[in-house]
Amino acid sequence: MDLASYLLKPVQRMGKYALLLQQMMKACPETLLNSSERSIQEIEDLKLAEEMVKFQLRHGNDLLAMDSIRECDVNLKEQGRLLRQNEFLVWEGKSGKRSLRQVFLFEELILFSKARRFPDRKNLDLYIYKNSIKMTDIGLTAKIGESPTKFEIWFRKRKPNDTFTLQSMTEDVKKIWTEELSQLLWKQAIKNRAVRMAEMSSMGIGNKPCLDIRPSDNQISDRSISFAQLSRTVPRFRNSIVGPVTEACRNVKRPHSVISMSSVSSSSTSSGGSAGTPTGQGGSIGHGSYESTCDSPKPYHKSATLNSQCSVVQLRLVLLKDCQNLPAPVLPR
Questions:
Q1: With bands split at pLDDT 50, 70 and 90, how would you rate the model's confidence at 182?
Q2: Residues 39 and 124 both lie in one domain
Q3: Closest Cα partner for 234 from 226, 242, 224?
Q4: CA 293, 298, 302 angle in degrees (round to 5)?
Q5: What is the Cα–Cα distance from 191 to 247, expressed in whole angstroms?
Q6: Do 62 and 77 share a structural domain?
Q7: Strand extents, DSSP E, the chain
Q8: Of 21, 209, 226, 238, which sees the most CB atoms within 10 A?
């Protein structure tokens, strides 16, 4: 016997371990499953041991098969772990010829090979490399027509000749492969998204892939401030002009007011009306003064233009004095 035959002995022994555990599971009576917690725990340990032996046996066979790949121009050590390897019927393209291929599933690659059998040397088959596809370039169609054993792998460019239809020997193999491929594609999508977000952040774009145009209370939809909004935000003091008094003052016509209507509308503090002082108050601004009240039938005297250095504080004082002497508004019943 040569060295390769001796190396197969441990792998074959793992298969015997799996058969032994299966026989032990069958030998356990069904009444033992509901007897005690200790017995249930022992049964669970046997199941875990059987699963571990099956995994090691399959993984050992996969590694031996990977070492048997020939004429491969891809560095398989850089493609991640070998997850699966099974035999499939493969159609390349929509009208391609059917061929028998040994397909290897790595974390980063799917590899197609052709098996070369040696009748005189059992379990020492060679696999001739045919082609391969990177996981970053493919998509998956888990169901093809009514066949329970077919699925499709295609390039994302979606050309007719860039599709591979695979048909497994059993439904279980097809189910396992489609689940493994789906998980790998999801992981690849999450990884690509993280890389893309990191690139956008490094360019100063931010961590959001698109603009957020949803309505929000913080966005500025209108820069103007209405009188109702001003009355809610300004605190009410004892001599405050905000409220009904200000509304009444605003309705009083002052044709000879010093403050024009444009200046009234542009200032939030002067929205209650125009400026002026009643008779007897002695209020003068600049070179002119007022000599009538809000209720006086006498015409107002036209005052001189305000001096350019008149402060805003003086204007507010005039407004406050003028509005305090107005009659109380009559509320509607």
A1: very high
A2: no
A3: 242
A4: 80
A5: 63
A6: no
A7: 69-70, 82-92, 98-106, 109-116, 126-134, 138-141, 150-155, 163-167, 284-285, 288-289
A8: 21
Q: Is residue 214 part of a domain?
A: no
Number of domains in the chain: 3
Q: Please say whether the beta carbons of 11 and 61 come within 8 A.
A: yes
Is residue 52 located within the same domain as residue 77? Answer: no
295-312 pLDDT, tens digit per residue, is 444 444 444 444 444 456
User: Can you say how many angstroms the Cα of residue 124 is from the centroid of all Cα atoms in its chain?
Assistant: 49
How many residues belong to the chain?
Answer: 333
The per-residue pLDDT for range 99-130, each reduced to its tens digit, is 999 999 998 999 999 988 766 666 567 889 99
Is residue 12 included in any domain, yes or no? yes
Token digits of residue 187:
């992981």
163-167/98-106 β-pairing: unpaired
* Tokens at 49, concatenated: 């041991």
Q: How many CA atoms lie within 13 A of 43 on its CB side?
A: 16
pLDDT value, residue 188: 84
